[in-house]
Amino acid sequence: MIIDVHVHAWDASSVLSCEKFLEWVVNLDEGVHAWTGTPMMVGGPLIFSAEELISMMDEAGIDKVCLLGLEDPEGVMITNDALANIVNSHPERFIGFGGLNPLNSPEKTVPEIEHMVKEFGFKGLKLHPDTSYYFCNDEKLCYPVYEKAQELGITILIHMGFDTNPALLKYARPILLDDVATAFPKLKIICAHAGYPWVEETAVLLLKHKNFYTDISFIETFCPESRYQQTIKYLVDTFPQAIDHIVFGSDFPAGPNPQEINLFKAGLDRVKNLDFLSKEEKKKILGENAARILGIKE
User: Is this model's pTM higher than 0.90 or not?
Assistant: First the structure.
């Protein structure tokens, strides 16, 4: 089974109505163009239907994807209700990770988590502290979120590492998650993007915490292919058991021209071309680890 843990579900009206999100997407588009020579939005808006997603998944050979929500004090990329409708239209292919912003206060966020899990069947939460400007180890705002997530047995996927304006990178250092993983030892935490470029911080957290994982999405988009390979090799060389804690993610639709290039397939091919990994190790990254974390049976 192949699982992509990092796929964004964006709603056109939500993105276009939020000036901050629009600035972020435009800057990301310009960044991808500068890094790869091809912008993201060549063929139009980055909005894809469920059927289009499944068609691309089938072409690439991906069985399931985690569809991520994203919420900011100034707006949402997609409402959790809308996300639930997409996920539940194809529950055998889509896994819901609700968007949540801890700045909304525990009085709102904690009941919202319970609703997302019990009513929508979501298996995780997506947090994006660098665009909302909060520290993920804020005990007052974030710890109630983690406590409820740990209680419900769901996974936290949290952006760490590089981002474009208006994100602030001081909120995106992986080492901040040391506090969280220590305080909530049964909470499953996935650090997005291997925390690149702070990969050393990610590696030491993989070494220290049994409940800490990382995805390897988007790294290849803003650095050379050789650095992508070096990043994953560094993780497994630093901590050989890290191979059980690394999960595949594409960050779709963030990448060069997703209207023409199957970013799912491109991401899979990069993992398959990692010559320093065995076939069994690649299988772990491409799906076995994610299935275990999310409690998915083949």
Answer: yes
